[in-house]
Amino acid sequence: MSFNNGAGNSGSGVGGGLFPAYAMNNRDQENQVKLNEDQYEVFVNDDFIGQKSLKNQGENLSDIDDFLKQQGISDFTASLDGDHYKIKTDGSNEEITGALKVYFNNR
């Protein structure tokens, strides 16, 4: 037995109506949700430190560099490799790591 709800959806549950078929599929719910922000993993000398989310249009990864420079740390280079933001330093590893942990806890 089938029915028609007037929205073009027969009792099969597929096609027509207000909701596409995948909207009712809870198995892949994580794959159906679009992220509204970009997320990057931040590393200092290949050690994972935390994640930086760019939630607003005005936010940039260079905000991390600016923060470190405001802390008086300038002996580093930074590069982006996919979703990994890599900070390299020769001598300020612990200082940068400590500052970034404060930075991520405050965000």
Plain-language structure description:
The longest helix has 14 residues, at 93-106. Strands 2-1-4-3 form a four-stranded mixed β-sheet, with helices on one face. It has helices spanning 29-32, 62-70, 93-106, and strands spanning 38-44, 47-54, 77-81, 84-88. The radius of gyration is 23 Å and the shape is globular. By secondary structure, the chain is α+β, with helices and mostly antiparallel strands. The termini are far apart. The protein contains three helices and four strands. The model has no long low-confidence stretch (mean pLDDT 78).
Any key phrases for this structure?
alpha+beta, 23% strand, four-stranded mixed beta sheet
Helix content: 25-40%
Rg value: 23 Å
In DSSP terms (H or I, runs of 4 or more residues), the helix count works out at 3
Contiguous low-pLDDT stretches (5 residues minimum) are: none
Categorize the overall geometry: globular
**Class of secondary structure makeup:** alpha+beta
Q: What sequence of helices (H) and strands (E) makes up the elements?
A: HEEHEEH
Q: Taking all residues together, what is the mean pLDDT?
A: 78
Number of strands: 4
Distance N terminus to C terminus? 56 Å
Strand content: 15-25%
